[in-house]
Design brief:
There is one protein chain. The chain is α+β, with helices and mostly antiparallel strands. The protein has one domain. About 15% of the residues lie in helices and about 25% in strands. It contains 4 helices and 8 strands. Strands 1, 2, 3, 4, 5, 6, 7 and 8 form an 8-stranded mixed β-sheet that branches.
């Protein structure tokens, strides 16, 4: 049996293609060419994702001292200033920092602040130190549970700067806390009712 002949441009009975694929294929940066802007549909609140390198925004306009309450599953609630001090032992002072991962995702990292009682907390102190480093370098956050503090590992080969969202910090905070009803602005909020035993 003779080998079956594979059709070629010369032997194929089909007409030649009129469209050259290379003339219509989009380049890999088609989003930039089209002037596309990434929409921010979700802003997570918490530590940067485990195992990912990230940087913290160095501009002071992208950080803010606030009062927060952490609930089960590390869900974070933001307290209005008028409610600060209502729940001693539950609320804590924190500084919200905008971070960006090397993959282009964003989030708000609420880094706890010292309570002012003179007690040193290794978790708080190490997080504050890592934030300072992450303002200029790509780092990966690791919780050292045995030692009781955070560790950071610097990426040696990542040199490109992060791409920051083109929106204000206020807009990011709105998206992070109002979408999930986690901004506690008055005593009618379900969290306040629950903590006061009214719900």
């Amino acid at each position: 049996m003779s080998e079956q002949q594979i059709p070629t441009a010369e032997t194929s009975s089909q007409p030649a293609n009129k469209i050259n694929l290379s003339s219509i294929r989009l380049s890999q940066d088609f989003g930039a060419q089209a002037g596309a802007t990434k929409l921010i549909t979700h802003v997570p609140v918490g530590k940067p994702p485990k195992g990912q390198f990230f940087q913290v925004h160095p501009d002071s306009d992208y950080r803010l001292e606030v009062s927060i309450i952490k609930r089960e599953g590390d869900e974070v609630y933001l307290l209005a200033q008028a409610l600060s001090g209502l729940f001693p032992g539950l609320e804590r002072p924190a500084r919200l920092h905008l971070y960006a991962t090397r993959h282009g995702s964003y989030g708000l990292w609420p880094v706890s602040l010292p309570l002012g009682d003179g007690k040193q907390n290794a978790w708080t102190q190490s997080a504050l130190e890592i934030v300072e480093v992450a303002m200029s370098k790509w780092v990966r956050l690791v919780s050292n549970m045995a030692a009781g503090y955070y560790e950071a590992f610097e990426a040696k080969s990542l040199t490109l700067p992060p791409t920051w969202p083109e929106v204000t910090f206020n807009t990011l905070i709105d998206k992070a806390f109002t979408d999930g009803d986690r901004f506690v602005e008055n005593e009618e909020h379900p969290l306040v009712q629950e903590l006061l035993g009214s719900a």
